[in-house]
Amino acid sequence: MTSTYVFVVLIVSVGALVFMVSKLKFHAVLALYLASLMLALLVGTPIEKIPKMINTGFGNTCKSVALVIFLGSLLGIILNKTGAIVKLTDSLVKFFGKKKVLWAIGTSCCILGIPVFPDTVSLLVIPLCTNLAKKTGISMMAFASVIQISITTSSLVPPTPGPVAAAAALGLPLGVAIPWGILVAIPGLLATVLYANTLKDKQVPLNEAFLEDTANSTTADLSMGFVRAITPVLLPVVLIILQTVSGVMMPKSSFAKVMTFIGDPLSALFIGCFSAVFLQARNWVHNLDIRDKWINSAVLDCAGPVFITALGGSLAAFIKSAGAAKILAESIVAAHIPGIFVPMLIGFMIRTATGSNTLGVATAAALCEPMLDILGISKLAAFLAMCSGAIAFSHANSSGFWLTCSLSKLNFNQGFRAIGGSTALSGLATSIFTLILYFAGII
Q1: Rounded CA gap, 33 and 36, in Å?
Q2: Which of 3, 95, 387, 429 could form a disulfide linkage to 191, CB 3.0–4.6 angstroms apart?
Q3: What letter does residue 175 receive in the DSSP assignment?
Q4: 176 burial class (0-12, 13-18, 19+ CB within 10 angstroms)?
């Protein structure tokens, strides 16, 4: 089996994955499974070994990400059901003032994108933005554009599935991934809001169903303060970062030992979920919804992302076995292309072709992990590059694109300009910042 053949097989398998998701509309779980089988058969893996390799790759990845994704999903549901998301957004709007309302919505969505899926953020925030559009005269195109910043943090900052999968595949501690992901997301926030400001005078009809009825605010505890609303989001982040910092600065101290437990992503997210229930939910001890329905909903919501992430591990197992990644990396090095561009371009191409930033990041991680040494880039640089690349850009093949368009009453051209434009610029800004950090020798 020649190196050229293995390289071609890899390209064909990934191309088939993209084709199945984007053109044939296969679910990503089925497409990943079929792409893994195709790659296994084409590289000559003995058929009796294929099931075991699929299970091994799936299981090794699943054990690293499943519970983290579930707890992140549960935290997002609690924030939604208790009205904390509405309160957080409303508080930021009051703080920034009506003249800078786009900065308020952008900041809110940037924070919410850490524990909450971007589509859910859109569902929750658009009714509020529709009323703000009427009160301020700012176009709904601008609000639809700035809401997309949630995709940036969702792509860069765990515990959402994409960055969790990438960190697990690369062996990068979440305590390192989270602060760097937040830092790199900041240029994306700036670019998104500045772009949204150019659209604020492009008036479009408003969704009458949302006017004077902020939908989700019916669940909100109006007495809830800003600190009470944001604490469950920030607490896990702080604990995870403290675990990493204490392990480096005082590795043998009692504090570091305690942080090893409570700062572990599982413990930190559990603490975040518990604090959300304790701080925000009324009568939570006797509330059947909290004890049963919310958890069931989180299990259902996280099932798809967990399977997509874990099957990415199965695909990675065959890529490693075939030596395809090494061949691809050596070809890139021979062409004198800086290695940092590889994960970035893979994330961008998969995201653009399939409409899924989670799939873009997970696939890039599976492809790039075996070739990091040859490419000469660090785990952190690869993580930030693939996550930044997978932000750009939302268009007609993205469910989130159509969700935002329909709720905001935007036609395709208006949506493409608002949503496609903002995600493209956000991805470009975060990618450029990542490149600056890399070529400056910081990451």
Answers
A1: 5
A2: 429
A3: H
A4: middle
